[in-house]
Every structure is written in C-alpha cells, then in structure tokens.
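Give me the fold.
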Amino acid sequence: MLTRSLAPTLAVLLVSVLSITAVRADPLKDNQVINLWPGTAPLAQGNGTADIPILTAFLPAAGKATGSAMVICPGGGYTHLSETKEGSVIGRWLADNGVMAFVLRYRISPYHYPVEFDDVERALRYVRANATAWGLDPNRIGIIGFSAGGHLASTAATHFDAGNTSSADPIDRVSSRPDLQILLYPVITFTDEPNVHKGSRTALLGSNPAPDLVASLSNERQVTKDTPPAFIVHSTSDRTVPVANSDEYSAALMKFNIPVVYLRGPYGGHGFGLTDKWSGQCIAWLKTNKF
C-alpha cells in the first residue's frame, strides 16, 4: 500500500449551499430512477433504454446518513455495463455505510465521446444541484468507477468545470468537480503502449481518433493541483488492464501533492468488484475525508 497524505494546495471549487437551487420537489426514495435530462438527452440517437442516461438512488437507513454522496460508474469497456457487480452492489454497500449512492447508467458504444462525459458531468451536477433538498453537503459529492468506468470517473476528476452561472438550467450552473475519486482497476492511459486497454479506447473514441483527443483523455497527463484526492485499487496480476495504468495515475497525483491511497497487490485478476481486501480500508478513508 502506498499512501500520500500531504494536504493539497488546491484552488478548490467550493460550492456554497446558498448558491444552489434544488430542482426536484419530491422527496428522494430508495431505488428511485432519475432521468438526467427532462426530455431527450443531448446527442441521443433514439429513445430506447440505451439512449436514456439515468441515476438509480440507494439511500442510507433513517438516522444513518452522513450527508455525503457518491456517483457510481460501472465498468464494461464502454460496450456494456456491469450494473450488478459494479453498480447496485456498490450502491447498497455505500448506503449501508451512510453514504447516499447513485448508480449511473451512462450511454455506451455505439455512442462515442463526448456523450459518456456529458452523462457523468450531468450526474455530478444533478446530485450537487439537489444537495440541499436531499440533505447532502454539496462539498461532499464524490465519484467511484470500475475499469472503463474508472476511466470515466478519472476523466470527471481531471476535466471538470465550475458550471455556467448564466445558464437557464439550474443544474448546469453548478460545478461538476467530484470532491473525492475512488478508482478500482481503472483504465487510465490511452497513449502508453502496451498498457492501453485498446477495446475501451476504440469503443469510446472510434477506430481512428485524432491524436490530440487521445492525449487529452489519457488522464495521467491531465492531473493538476485541483484534481481531487483519490483512493485507488489495482491488482498486480491484472491481465486485462495493466497495473501500470494506476501506477502512472498515482505518480501524477503525487507529483501535484494530491492525497492518494493506492492499494497495489495480488488481489486477483481483473474485475474482482467488492471484496474485503479493499472495502474496509476504503470506508476508513471515506470517514477520514468526512464522507
């Protein structure tokens, strides 16, 4: 285990509770499904299930909520979603530990970038915009991603913006920056051969993407002093997404003095999901970060 606990010198994009306008009047319910856009999602190719990005809410039991939330990005190589092992199971685990959780069903291939990024940004903004109504602290909203979902989560953690204050949509006015990031066996690099997971890159960017786009989504290159703290887990025996992906990302975080806990060891192959090899340490880390 590699731990870096130095306090970052971040120009943190804090969100004032007073500046947030709640956009849902109804109380949130456990297992509630939320459409991210009231009508057709931007760049939608149809109106079927695969064209409609949603959040599914997992709520802590009464009296157990900590006031924090996490958006969950299941893996699947940008071609399918592992919605059970890396979605609902994770949502219930977080809720059982007091963290309100939202599993994101984002659009996947044949959709390409920026659609997936639009979906995850919208998810973070949506939860933050409703923080007051849902009893959440808008400055304690994080993201967790698995495999290609880890790439999406790390993209959110390195490509966020402060929101468009002049937008007519109150959701678009708030920051898309996650306050923490948790990455499990994540796809990170799109440029470092042979460590690239080519299936994810092709599914997200197509077969002949522009080199500058490939570089911009190689997230070990996109870390800045404002990137949020991270908890990363990767197996040294992963033959699908090489551990070098997490090695490079954690090194980039440490270069900018971003706090990172990196669990690197023989945890099994790829896609091991929720196990006691990392879950207890992750909950302890969340508590340390007041989640």
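Residues 129 and 171 are 5 Å apart (CA to CA).
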